[in-house]
User: Which sequence fits this backbone?
């Protein structure tokens, strides 16, 4: 059985065995265009083939035609919910190539952390909202979509945009914080921390949710490592990884935070890791606001940016996990080669193994619990 | 463990293969080698704590008619997890064939398919060297080759798609 049998056919009965092959997708089921071709034995999945690529737009090739600044807006497009997450490693890699790493002002580094954590909360809230849809729980969708607004407004007050912020640039950040930013940020954090308690009480201590999510879609720790999983998906299986702590960048070593780890490895663990991370993000934001001192927010690069001949590899912890950029420069204003390694692309690897043996009814919730974003994987 | 200590310990574990390792940047160790040692290097890295494959980058080098492949491998062990090891080698474009490392790290499956699709490098041992990201009817050259140029829509095509053509 292969992909070539599927186009145009939605359900196909395979000869003799009484199994059905069903194409799940590629409509937009909540997280982007993506298809899983599942073979069903009764309602149990006996084989699953993920079929990504419906939203591939060649971001790596396009990057070779644009200079380091022009690349910023289009590189965000694959990860619009976490645009700081994808720009952070890009900016660090470009700064390495332009020898700007030591010239980024301290205030800019702190604002970058703020923006990255805002984006983490925005992305995690969206994850929870879509998880609600996939479970048929519309309250969760409405709550999470509404609560993200607090942080979207903060990010918009910094960058001027609601979705793709284009806020990080080589040398610093685009603008300084507006007046009364600190007060509004603290309000948003207080609100979010209270809401997270509501989420737990209403949604995740709920016996029906537990029945749907606990002991479903278990990923073992060994699998998580050998399949190269990252981010909340890996941490829910007991893999102790977080680039913010392992290889601190941009003054993350000066703030105190914990990396939430769970060992169950099921759908519920993956969701609860997201909740814990949002709590930690608020904790980080509060510390950063105390540490920030007035000062410049950008080192202005004079003239055309040209990287040295060489390569740079930078990685950061985006909302969905480790995001890395390998940028190769031959000294021209445009990069010679840009390799984007996104967390969704890495978490894709576990899908065939994870979905095998699940009931079809558990597929949506398990798929979403991986926080897989098709556009991010396709690039 | 700093980069130099780590490089020294990796040189020891790569001893039978006769490869060197050195610090290429902060927290980055570079090992240059050849394609025929790839699987053994992967196994050696895996047993010395670097068992967390990040990504594979392949680059087209038309001047020397070669491909350069970088395998980026991280670690989850204390003292090593801040470092990323890069294994680099070049292969001639005339015979773009590389052994698959799926037996060491199943994570390589999609990375290898990606490099096959975008640069035309075959990975021996990967069962699915077929289209994934590009359209199923893609019949042009692999797009990340340097002689594949980005295409623009010409006026006739735009009109056929119902787009208004202004004087640009």
Assistant:
């Amino acid at each position: 059985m292969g992909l070539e049998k599927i186009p145009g056919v939605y359900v196909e009965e395979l000869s003799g065995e009484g199994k059905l092959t069903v194409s799940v997708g590629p409509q937009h089921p909540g997280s982007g265009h993506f298809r899983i071709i599942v073979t069903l034995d009764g309602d149990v999945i006996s084989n699953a083939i993920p079929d990504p690529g419906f939203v591939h737009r060649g971001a790596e090739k396009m990057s070779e035609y644009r200079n380091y600044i022009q690349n910023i807006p289009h590189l965000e497009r694959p990860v619009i919910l976490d645009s700081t997450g994808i720009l952070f490693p890009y900016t660090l890699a470009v700064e390495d190539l332009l020898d700007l790493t030591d010239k980024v002002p301290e205030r800019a580094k702190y604002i970058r952390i703020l923006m990255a954590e805002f984006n983490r909360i925005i992305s995690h809230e969206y994850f929870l909202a879509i998880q609600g849809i996939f479970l048929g729980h519309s309250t969760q969708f409405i709550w999470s979509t509404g609560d993200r607004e607090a942080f979207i407004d903060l990010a918009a007050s910094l960058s001027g945009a609601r979705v793709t912020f284009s806020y990080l640039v080589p040398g610093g950040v685009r603008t300084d914080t507006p007046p009364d930013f600190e007060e509004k940020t603290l309000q948003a954090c207080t609100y979010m921390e209270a809401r997270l308690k509501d989420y737990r009480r209403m949604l995740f201590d709920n016996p029906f949710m537990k029945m749907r999510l606990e002991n479903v879609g278990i990923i073992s720790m060994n699998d998580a490592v050998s399949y190269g999983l990252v981010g909340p998906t890996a941490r829910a299986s007991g893999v102790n990884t977080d680039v913010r702590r392992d290889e601190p960048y941009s003054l993350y070593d000066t703030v105190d935070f914990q990396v939430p780890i769970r060992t169950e490895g099921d759908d519920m663990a993956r969701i609860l890791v997201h909740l814990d991370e949002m709590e930690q993000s608020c904790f980080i934001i509060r510390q950063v606001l105390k540490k920030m001192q007035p000062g410049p927010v950008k080192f202005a690069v004079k003239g055309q940016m040209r990287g040295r001949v060489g390569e740079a590899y930078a990685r950061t912890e985006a909302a969905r996990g480790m995001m890395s950029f390998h940028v190769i420069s031959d000294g021209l204003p445009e990069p010679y080669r840009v390799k984007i390694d996104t967390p969704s692309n890495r978490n894709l690897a576990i899908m065939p193994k994870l979905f095998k043996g699940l009931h079809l009814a558990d597929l949506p919730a398990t798929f979403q619990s991986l926080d897989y974003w098709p556009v991010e994987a396709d690039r | 463990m700093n980069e130099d200590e780590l490089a020294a310990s990796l040189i020891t574990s790569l001893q039978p293969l006769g490869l060197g390792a050195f610090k290429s940047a902060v927290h980055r160790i570079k090992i240059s080698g050849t394609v025929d040692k790839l699987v053994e290097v992967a196994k050696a890295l895996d047993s010395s704590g670097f068992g967390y494959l990040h990504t594979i980058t392949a680059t087209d080098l038309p001047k020397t008619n070669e491909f350069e492949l970088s395998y980026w491998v991280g670690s989850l062990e204390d003292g090593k997890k801040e470092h990323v090891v890069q294994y680099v080698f070049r292969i001639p474009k005339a015979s773009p064939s590389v052994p698959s490392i799926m037996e060491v790290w199943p994570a390589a499956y999609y990375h290898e398919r990606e490099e096959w699709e975008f640069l035309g490098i075959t990975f021996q041992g990967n069962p699915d060297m077929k289209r994934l990201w590009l359209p199923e009817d893609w019949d042009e050259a692999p797009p990340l080759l340097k002689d594949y140029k980005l295409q623009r829509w010409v006026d006739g095509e735009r009109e056929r798609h119902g787009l208004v053509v202004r004087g640009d």
